[in-house]
Amino acid sequence: MLLCQNQIKNAQEPAPDRKWLCVELPVTEYKEAWHLQSNLVAAKYHKTIQENVVLLLEHPPVFTLGRRGGLNNLRVSENFLEKAVIPVIQVERGGNITFHGPGQLVVYPIIHLQAAKLSVVRYVENLEEVMIRTAADWGITAVRNPLNRGVWVGNKKLGSIGIAIRRGICFHGMALNVNTSLEPFQWITPCGLENTEITSMELERSGNVSMKQVRKRVKHHLKAVFDITLIMTRLEKLKINESKPDT
Q1: Residue 86 sits in which domain range?
Q2: Which of 38-52, 101-115, 124-138, 185-199 has the lowest mean pLDDT?
Q3: Which among 24, 104, 38, 31 is positioned nearest to 64, based on CA atoms?
Q4: Of 4, 22, 170, 191, which residue is the catalytic one?
Q5: The domain that contains 204 carries what CATH number?
Q6: Could you please report the per-residue DSSP string of 128-163?
Q7: For this structure, is 22 an active site residue?
Q8: N or C end: fewer C-beta atoms under 10 angstroms in the chain?
Q9: 113-149 pLDDT per residue, tens
């Protein structure tokens, strides 16, 4: 039986939940990106955006505290951080305290887990797999640890995961240390874990690692691991209602 032209076209196109809009951003203030995520969650919930969305970006230096985070894991004084011009921000993601800064690739997928047919555990494992495969592209063997989420090179943490779910929509995401300064991690108890070292791809590689190339490979692995099509777009093309953020 011959398929009509429309049937062939529909068979070739991925289902709506398999298409993710991808926005690459420059270094973006944490609160600005946080506000953007909240508006995207609202847009997904109110169905003004049908597709899942993923943001790729870097942050200026900032410490964030997850739901289990507390200032007790900060090893320096707040006065020290004020002089260093590094804010500390409490957010709703899971996990404890962590550091974000230039040279760390942050990936924020805003997706409806049920529509994507993903459990929370499977979703987290997929994010870990993206980081593991990306590290392997540079000859770095990273592994997951079910007791301490993220990816590790030996006993050194290379990438972190912290997510939140609002009305079935997942946001926040993962942070992979590419060539970021590791000094600020010495000012905290990372993720609340004592005797935990932090590493970067550049440190493990003992040489330069291009952020541009890492972004490219992360997008490649997102497509493969989540079995999706990434559609590159610009922020201004997304239908975000600034007056109706989800709270």
Answers
A1: 15-236
A2: 185-199
A3: 31
A4: 191
A5: 3.30.930.10
A6: HHHHHHHHHHTT---EE-TTS-SEEETTEEEEEEEE
A7: no
A8: N
A9: 988 899 999 999 999 999 999 999 999 999 998 778 8
